[in-house]
Amino acid sequence: MTQIFNFSAGPAVLPKEVLAQAAAEMLDWHGSGMSVMEMSHRGPEFMSIYKAAERDLRELLAVPDNYKILFMQGGGLSQNALIPLNLLGHKPEGATIDFIHTGSWSAKSIKEAGKYAKVNTAASNTTAVPAQADWQLTADAAYLHMCTNETIDGVEYQPDFNDTRFKDRVLVADMSSHILSRVIDVAKYGVIFAGAQKNIGPAGVTIVIIRDDLLGKALPVCPSAFDFKLVADNESMYNTPPTYGIYIAGLVFQWLKQQGGVAEMERRAKAKAELLYAALDVDDFYQNRVAPANRSRMNVPFYLKDESKNEAFLAGAKARGLLQLKGHKSVGGMRASIYNAMPIEGVQALVDYLNEFAGR
Amino acid sequence: MTQIFNFSAGPAVLPKEVLAQAAAEMLDWHGSGMSVMEMSHRGPEFMSIYKAAERDLRELLAVPDNYKILFMQGGGLSQNALIPLNLLGHKPEGATIDFIHTGSWSAKSIKEAGKYAKVNTAASNTTAVPAQADWQLTADAAYLHMCTNETIDGVEYQPDFNDTRFKDRVLVADMSSHILSRVIDVAKYGVIFAGAQKNIGPAGVTIVIIRDDLLGKALPVCPSAFDFKLVADNESMYNTPPTYGIYIAGLVFQWLKQQGGVAEMERRAKAKAELLYAALDVDDFYQNRVAPANRSRMNVPFYLKDESKNEAFLAGAKARGLLQLKGHKSVGGMRASIYNAMPIEGVQALVDYLNEFAGR
């Protein structure tokens, strides 16, 4: 097989070492005679896998003891409903949720939350995150929801926690496409959630990290299988969890630790992103439309100035083993997703091709 | 590795041929240079996997054209909420759902549905399904829900479709633990659902087969990610589906076709179940408490008359490679789950051990 580099936005590239180990263990995990797929989720073999995955993720993100880590199903998209369904039970009718709108994913979150509460878009800009001082926050909002990396729009940011308005405010962050790529202070958030299929593992696993005082506030119509408190009280086994996906996620967590953890991933992400944006910025042959301060290190959308060359660009890329560079259909153009498992050699190969195609 | 036989109730044994193929293709699916886990769900590679899986399942169960097959997340348990959330939108306040209570799973369904509607338990018995003529059905019920194989209680049955009360009644069947093990007439049902982790594939995939006139009736509070109509309209890709689980399910479907399809699985299931129940019935050393007409071909719970020997029984079984025979904690005793992927040699090995342990 030819060396390929897979720039898919998700499901996305995984570490080769993880896939090789999964292949080797497929028919017989550690002499058990069983595949991980065949294990009872409550048996000692899978419980050891689960506990190691939870422990390693807790270590990687330095998750404080008063936070629960849930391994759920449904994807990041489902959390747009499950977050209000789980957090609004203590609020009277008429609760308001504040949102920061920075792209397609926060837009979806706003729309879905409108089914359960009043929504207030406190700030809105999909190419440059408005100054935090200008956010129009509601005094008694149930919580503030933000998507700190917009996978489609390529906008990444971190809130300024020195903002005195954040005191006692519950922050909910959708970190689906940049979790584990930068050091974060979990204690500043009420809920962090992430679909697995970017930096964690296969599609079908969703991570929820929640401060324990926020459990037990579900609306009566919240399905039991998705009630955070029931999931937490049963160590993610209130119903059968996506066992194989959790196993792969656990292997990714081990790989991350071997590589040096999240700080090392952040160092590499900066280096990869700087390399790629520099090539895009040489002249106006390519364009990235995001304000430099908010450019994502994970998802790099770009446009050819002459869009009639799009098909030729993609065909040439494919011929060089540079795959899945087409942009999301809603915004067009190109997109290179450069998650943790993308080696810098892949970014360098893309940069070489960008220069070659531009005739530099 | 020693030959083992895995009697887990789920996640459960998978065909060795399927696991071997998955291992061989793990790093490079069909020369794509990618693992199936790394593929965009909307790319041509995964779309071909998805379409083949859907087509093969449709063929195996002879699903009529006016039924949609959905590949969802959340597990069978989540459907206890998602079914009422999706079917009650056209009913005025005060809708009633009829249930047949035959064990732990239908009991859970009844409890959960009570969050969304009035529930009527039309019949209740966890060891012998009441005669259908005695079911106390509601004239204008939104639908009738039944679990046609109770995984924990080992009760299996099929409704009598000659019952004139069934005309125009919407039947919802939880077939999680016996789907694809017997020939069914899909056209008699409104909705069939099944968690994958018994006869289909890995945990984390849920199959929903729904008659198309039942789509578009969701309650406003139904999360979009679980709205059957949105899922159907987007070919199960309204949000990112559990791609790797669908791939494994597709391999299982291919295996089933190679083995002779559902009719052949039914023939084997009968043979395996007869062999096992005959050994349990020799004398009163072992007991199965289910009425013979309702004994499950998939899940065979049994008790030692002298329960002080339970630990010795399980230890001896494990020493012979007969794994995961402990009964569910809620009912105790033993349970042998003998799904499609369990060869008759495994059942024979268990029977030999049953006889040996009983001193026959």
Mean pLDDT of chain A: 96
Q: How large a portion of the residues of chain A is in β-strands, by DSSP E? A: 15-25%
Q: Find the biggest chain interface.
A: A-B, 69 and 69 residues
- The CATH level-2 architecture of the largest domain in chain A is identified as 3-Layer(aba) Sandwich
Structural class of chain A: alpha/beta
CATH class of the largest domain in chain A: Alpha Beta
Question: How are strands sequenced across the largest beta sheet of chain A?
Answer: 2-10-9-8-5-3-4
Q: Taking Cα atoms only, what radius of gyration of chain A do you get, to the nearest Å? A: 21 Å
- The helix content of chain A is 25-40%
Biggest sheet layout of chain A: 7 strands, mixed
- Quaternary: homodimer
Spans of chain A of 5+ residues with little confidence (pLDDT < 50)? Answer: none
CATH superfamily of the largest domain in chain A: Type I PLP-dependent aspartate aminotransferase-like (Major domain)
Notes on the structure:
The structure is a homodimer of 360-residue chains. By secondary structure, chain A is of the alpha/beta class. Chain A has 2 domains: 17-258, Type I PLP-dependent aspartate aminotransferase-like (Major domain) (Aspartate Aminotransferase, domain 2, 3-Layer(aba) Sandwich); 260-357, Aspartate Aminotransferase, domain 1 (Alpha-Beta Complex), CATH 3.90.1150.10. The first copy, chain A, has 9 helices and 14 strands. Chain A has helices at 16-24, 44-60, 75-87, 104-113, 228-233, 243-259, 261-281, 310-319, 344-357; strands at 5-6, 67-72, 96-101, 118-124, 143-147, 149-150, 155-156, 171-174, 191-195, 206-211, 286-287, 299-304, 322-323, 334-337. In chain A, the strands form 4 sheets. Chain A has a 7-stranded mixed sheet. In chain A, a hairpin with a 4-residue loop joins β6 and β7 (155-156). In chain A, α1 packs across α6 and α2 packs across α6. Chains A, B: Its main location: cytoplasm. Chains A, B: Homodimer. Chains A, B: It catalyses: 4-(phosphooxy)-L-threonine + 2-oxoglutarate = (R)-3-hydroxy-2-oxo-4-phosphooxybutanoate + L-glutamate; O-phospho-L-serine + 2-oxoglutarate = 3-phosphooxypyruvate + L-glutamate.
